[in-house]
Choloylglycine hydrolase/NAAA C-terminal domain-containing protein
Amino acid sequence: VRATAFSVTALPAETTFDAIKDVFLILNNFDIPKGFSREVVKGEIYADYTQLTCARDPQTLKYYYKTYNNQTVKEFDLNSFDSNSKEILVLNTDASKQVFENVNKKLKPTK
């Protein structure tokens, strides 16, 4: 219900970039952090969490995703693949870790 309310009331995006950004902002409301949903089995804790969030642009055949360990949105374009290929391609979505950018040097005094 909340997802519908967010998506119906969001302002129309002017570009595909803005639309995908808005989709991720809406989906962020439903992320499950580690430990929120958990179960203890024989003394060991098992936790559910949002491992991957994805969106797609059906017009351009581009898919976008971010993972629990790296919140940077990544893109892959289905148009760049050979649809006749028999080769199966895989991607380790957890290969890259989140980097926090230090912006201290970008700070400027107010005018």
